[in-house]
Every structure is written in structure tokens, then in C-alpha cells.
Amino acid sequence: MAESNFIHDFIDEDIASGKTKTVHTRFPPEPNGYLHIGHCKALVIDFGTAQKYGGLCNLRMDDTNPAKEDTEFVDAIKEDIHWLGFDWGDRFYYGSDYFARTYELAEDLIKKGDAYVCELSPEEFKEYRGDLTHPAVSPWRDRPAEESLDLFHRMRDGEFPEGKYTLRAKIDLASGNFNMRDPVLYRIRYIEHHRQGTKWCVFPMYDFAHPIQDALEGITHSLCSLEYEDHRPLYNWVIEHCDVPSKPRQIEFARLNITNTVLSKRYLRGLVETGVVDGWDDPRMPTLCGLRRRGYTPEAILDFIGRIGVSKANSMVNIGLLEHCVRSELNLKAPRRIAVMNPIKVVVDNFPADKTEYFPVPNNPNDPEAGTRDVPFTRELWIDADDFAEVPPPKFFRLKPGGEVRLMSSYIIRCGEIVKNPDGTVKEIHATADLETGTGVPTDRKVKGTIHWLSADYAVDTEAILYDRLFTEENMNDLPEGKTYQDYLNPDSAVRMPNAKIEPSLKDSKPGETFQFVRIGYFTRDTKNSGVFGRVVSLKDNYKPEA
Ligand code: ATP
Ligand code: MG
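^ thats the input. predicted complex w/ adenosine-5'-triphosphate below
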């Protein structure tokens, strides 16, 4: 992240004014799901900003909320961040580790008259909130400090049911910012905390806990997404009114939204739990583990994040840009191999049945040093069903009755008899090769089409899955009334090709290795199911950057 952005401008200001000498950021994921590509933007901003200024970035599990955190998620989050290439060193923390100190700071606020115990029910609380023209009403605001302190202790000791009391900050009931209308700081919850067990039955609200956690860790710049902008006055209030060792500055940036997908853990969990996808790491998921399994590389993802930039205005980024980034990278790096998705047989009648001939095929036309490999040719071949048309449309330059086509890196063949199955489908196509036209034989023969092929004797069976976008609708954040994401699932997001064939050299390829299947797309051998090659991205780039 060498380029400058408005966050760096703010930090430069703070350095110039002497407010800070160093830069210390944090990435605070809530361990209630897997990281998605939206988090990558935050990661790049948090870790990248620290890197740029030679500073530090902490990893803090935001487990302030006692519900549903899980070590499965904690481990996955760490793995994903490392995979992207970021490291927090020994600065790994849990928000809940600060519960004791946070509680003490709340006691201090009560003693100073800056907080009080309120006994409005949640319904009353809403009713008393007021509106733009009417201030909130808070009947317990002037409760004496000793009484509030006593109630707060008894809240902690488990004397009261959930919802009976809350601790509220005494700020401004008439504020135009509702977050400042005496916000709740603590509430009673009888839920076991994944790390604290049943030690606590009062839990701080995020708006109170987060600034304290930042300050206790010496964070200088607390970078977060735009939905916290209206919470910044409260963040600053907490920092100013609590006895904390540093004064972090909150700066907000726009969340990343991408077309044809959802970037919210809640929705992503829904997809997993309803079985729409087969797990958080389903290759169609925008999670980091899903993208990794799909065959995306950290380089491609970071390239994407770099291109979208850091802005202060929310926007929707076309998923085509992400696909473009991975395609560009794989175009340079991925070795070329031959695969046939939907095979039909071609019998080359004038080629001896017991002969194998080898043709050298380039491993990567973009990289002459990648060399060639020998691909076996025999009398019986597989070609892709798409490359043959019995009744060809205009300008069809592939195989058609009576026509000629170049077999890639090999002979020109002429289509002969077409043998059918009883159901009318094509059983096999007979052809004659022009045996003068193999590689290396200079020829001025002109043939318009070139198709790929595999020897039926040597090809290896596999299953291929053509992955595509999960949703048909671009803006999944703004669905019409009454519709849910279930209404926009792309029925073709994972098209199975159970009869696919691959060239023999792929037999020893490893899960996670990525190839270009020539004329088809980029594919990777699935890390969970090594009998499957999944499509990373198609070859065709439909993405047009907006002018
Ligand atoms: P979700 O809505 O997916 O649950 P979240 O904000 O609750 O997202 P956290 O685990 O709390 O998820 O996020 C950790 C950090 O990542 C936060 O600082 C948050 O602002 C940031 N973040 C989350 N989603 C995005 C996004 N789409 N774009 C940019 N930053 C994001
Ligand atoms: Mg969150």
C-alpha cells in the first residue's frame, strides 16, 4: 500500500502536529465466522498502514459479545491472515481479556457522576428515546452515585435477571446524535463466554469496550468501516472520560461491497447453514478460505484491493474486477494443459491403431522458458462436444461434416462419417488426418479452426466443476421488499462435468496446483476432493473498467 490515501493524510497530520510519533493499528475481527474479501480491505488498511509507517498492527479477537465465538473461527482467522502475508508477531489479544479493567473504568465513571444505573425496560428505553425534535427522557439519570455503584456491583453478582438494569453513560439526552443520548455501557447477560466461562454476567457494549481495548493496547489509529462514523463522538467521549493510557484516533473508511455476492457474515452463515453451499470454504464463497480453495492467490486478491483503493464513500465494486485480477495473474503463471470437458470420440481412420506419436506442446506461450511437453496422439481421440456441430451455424470454424480443422499442435483432420447411438446422439466421428501436416512440417495449408484433443488411450478421467457467480443479481444489498437472497441464487454456479478427461501429465498434479486448460479456463485440483478440478475463472474477460 505505497500509494497515499486520506487515512495516511490524517496520520501525516498527527505526526506533523506532534500528536503521535509512531503508528500502531489493530485488526479486530469478531470470531463468529470466517474472514471474507471485505475483511481483506480492512486487513490491508490496518496492516498496510502500520507497515508504511514502520509501525505495529495487533490482531485482536473482538469477543466482547458473549454469543457464539468459537476457536474454529479464531484458528481460521489466523490462518487466513497469514496466508495473505500479514503477521501480528506476538501481539495477539482477546477483547475479553480486558473485561476486568473495563469494569473498573465503568465503576470510575459512576463515581465521577458520568454513568448511572437505569431501570427502564428495553421497551421503555425505546419509547423514551425521543426523536429529532424531542430529547430523550431518562428517569434514573440523577440516581446518586453510591446507589448506582451498589446496583452495578449487584448486577455483576448475578442478583438481577437480564434486562432489569443497565449502566448508562450520562452524556446528552438532547444530542442530535442518538448514540450520545445516554448510551448503554453495560447490560446483564446470562450467557457462557467462550473464554471467560460464567465469570461474568454483565458485559460491556461494543461502543464502550472497543475504545478502551484500543487505548489499553496503545493503538494510535483505530481504523474501521464507515458504519462507525456516528459512533466516533462516543468513542472520543469514552477515551476522554476514562483513565486510559493513550488517546487513539478513530478514522473510518468505506466498506467493500462486490456485485453478485454477499459480504456479511450473517448471510454467509445462512448460506452454509441452509446448505446452499457446502461449507465456509465452498469455492463459490467470498470467504478467504473459499477463494483459496477456488484457486485465487494472495497476490491476485491484494492486487484487487490495491486497485479499488481506499475511499470514504461506500460503493459497489464489480466482481469482474476481482476475476480480472486473478485471470491476469494466472495468465502469466499457470502452465497450459489440455482437458476435454464434454468428450466425444474422433477416430482417425488413416492412423495406425497400434501407434502412439508424441507432439511437443508449449507449457506457456507467454513464457518460452517454460518449455514444452510431449502429448501422446493415437488413432482414437477425445474432442469437446462444443467443437463439433452437425448442423453448423454460420462462421463455425470447428469440426463439421465434410470440414477440416487443425488439431492443436498436431494434424489437420477432415471430418468423415458420423456414427450415431440408437438415441440419435453422436457415438463417434470418423476422420482422416493429413499426415503431412504434423508439427514441424511446413505447410501453407489454410484451416480456419484449431481445436484441442486428447488421446483416448492416454487421457485420464476426472470430474470438472465450472464455478460461477453465486447470485444472478448485481446488488445483493438492496433487494426488493419480500425477496431474499434465496430468490437470486444462480442455478449454474457449479456446473458439474462428470465425464471430463485430462491429459496424462496432470495425473501427478497436486491439490491446489492451478493450470490453464487451453481454450476453456483456469482450473485447480480441489484441495478437499482431489478427484475434481474446479474452475477458478473463465478465460474470457468481460470486465470493462468504468471510464
Ligand atoms: P460482518 O457484517 O461481515 O459480520 P463485521 O464488521 O461485523 O462484518 P468484524 O469481524 O467485526 O465483521 O470485522 C472486523 C473488521 O473488518 C472491522 O474493522 C470491520 O470494519 C472490517 N470489515 C468487515 N467487513 C468489511 C467490508 N466489507 N469492507 C471493509 N471492511 C470490513
Ligand atoms: Mg462486527
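The chain has twelve helices and 29 strands.
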